[in-house]
Amino acid sequence: MDGENAYLAIVLPRAATAADCQTVAAFNRFFPPGDVYARAEEGKVVICLKQLDFRRLEEFAAARPDELAQEIFRRISDIKSYNIRGGKRIYANYGAERKVRQRKLKEEKRDKVFYARGHNFAPENNAVPPAYANRIICGDSLKILQALPDNCVDLIFTSPPYNFGLEYAEQDDDHYWQDYFDKLFAVFDQCIRVLKFGGRIAVNVQPLFSDYIPTHHLLSNYFLGKKLLWKGEILWEKNNYNCKYTAWGSWKSPASPYLKYTWEFIEIFCKGSLKKVGAKENADITAEEFKNWVTAKWSIAPEHKMQAYGHPAVFPEELARRIIKLFSFRGDFVLDPFNGTGTTTAVAQRLGRKFLGIDIAKKYCEIARARLAGSGEGED
User: How many domains is the chain built from?
Assistant: First the structure.
C-alpha cells in the first residue's frame, strides 16, 4: 500500500522478455488505466491496484495461458482483503475506516495477556546436554524429562495417547479419565519446565466425543492455568467422510444426537513470550507456505502407512512438517515426549532441527530409529 493504492510485485526468475512485455501490455488493455495497470521493471512486474472487475481478470487469464499471465491471476486472486462496490473489488484504502488508532495503547489498556501475568518463567535459556541430542530414547517421558535442564527446548510437538482404547504396543489406552489426565499433565508439567522462554508447545488431540470428554478444552485450560500464552488452534481436516455420514445416538430424534467430526485439533501455546528469538536466515518457510499455513484449517489426508508401522494412530509427516517450519527455526531443538513411531523426529531431522523422541514402547522406538537411519543420524 502507498496510502491510496495497493502494489503487487511479481519477481521474475530472469530478466523480462519480449513475451513478458506483451503480457503486460495485454493486461493493461483489459482494464481502464485508472483502475489497475502493470509495468515491467528489471527482474519483476509491478501491478498497481485501485479497483478491479474480477470477471475481466478471469477473461484475461483465459485468453492468455502463458506463465506470467497465470501468475498475475493467481497472485491477485490470493489477495483476500478487499471490499466490493459497483461490481468491482476495491483495493485502494480498503479498511481505512476500520483501522484502529493508537492500537498499542489500547492493547495495553485491555491487557491482552492478563491471564498469563505472574508466570515467573526465567528468561535465560539453556542448551540440551549432548547426551540427549538427536536421539530416540525408550522409557517413561516423566522420568526422562526430569534429566533435562530448564528452558532448553525450542518446540514440542506431540500427540499423546487419546485414551480411546486403541491397541498400542506395550501400553494400555483405556484408563479412568482422571488417572489419564493426572499422568498426562504430569508429563506436560515437565514439558513446560524444559521449554525455552519464547518456545512453543503444539499438541495434536482428538476429543472422545462419545464420552463427551472435551480433551482439547481440558488441555487448553491446563496450559492457561500454567500461565502459558495462547498462540492459536489449528483444525486438521482429515476429510474422513466415512465418519461424516455415520449417524449415532438418537437417530432422527433430538433426544441425544451424537455429533461426528472429520477433523482433529492442534492446540498451540507459548512460554513467556509470543515472539520467538531466531536468526532470519534460519527461517526456512517460504512465502507461499506461510500464506497458506497461517490460515488455521489444514486439509491433510491421514497417514496411510499405519498398518506398516504397526501403530493405530500415526499423524502424517505433512502435519509435522508444517508445525516445525511454521513455529521453529533451522537448528532449533524439537521434542516429542510421545514419539511413537517417530514422525516428529524423522521430519525434524530432515528439516535440519535437533531432536529428542521419547516413547515407552520398544517396538515403536525401533521403528523410529529405522526412520532416522536413512540419513545416518539418531542413536540410542
Answer: 2
Question: What does the alpha-carbon distance between residue 91 and residue 106 come to, in Å, rounded to a whole number?
Answer: 27
Give domain status of residue 380, yes or no.
no
62 and 164 together in one domain: no
Does 48 share its domain with 133? no
d(CA 337, CA 132): 13
Task: Tell me which residue range forms the domain holding 160.
Answer: 115-373
Q: What one-letter code names the amino acid at 262?
A: T
Does some domain include residue 333?
A: yes
CATH number at residue 274: 3.40.50.150
> What pLDDT, in 10s, does the model give residues 316-328?
999 999 999 999 9
Rounded distance, CA 103 to CA 251, Å? Answer: 50
Residue 354 has pLDDT above 80, yes or no: yes
Which of 56, 74, 90 terminates a domain? The answer is 90
Q: What is the pLDDT of residue 96?
A: 54
Could you tell me if residue 362 is inside a domain?
yes
- Whether 223 is covered by a domain: the verdict is yes
Comparing 211-215, 327-331, 351-355, the range with the smallest average pLDDT is 211-215
Q: List residues bridging with 268 in a β-sheet.
A: 202, 232
pLDDT digits (tens, 9 = 90+) for 2-48: 446 778 888 888 788 889 999 999 999 999 988 999 998 888 999 98
Q: How far apart are CA 57 and CA 72, in angstroms?
A: 9
Which pLDDT score, from 0 to 100, does residue 164 have? Answer: 46
Rg (CA), the chain: 25
Pairing status of strand 135-138 against strand 354-359: parallel
Cell numbers that stand for 138 in this block: 525408550
User: Does 327 lie in the same domain as 210?
Assistant: yes
Q: Which amino acid is at 212?
A: Y
Q: How far apart are CA 165 and CA 141, in angstroms?
A: 20
What global pTM score does this model have? 0.70
Distance separating alpha carbons of residues 352 and 358, to the nearest angstrom: 19
81 and 192 belong to one structural domain: no
Separation of alpha carbons 30 and 33, rounded Å: 9
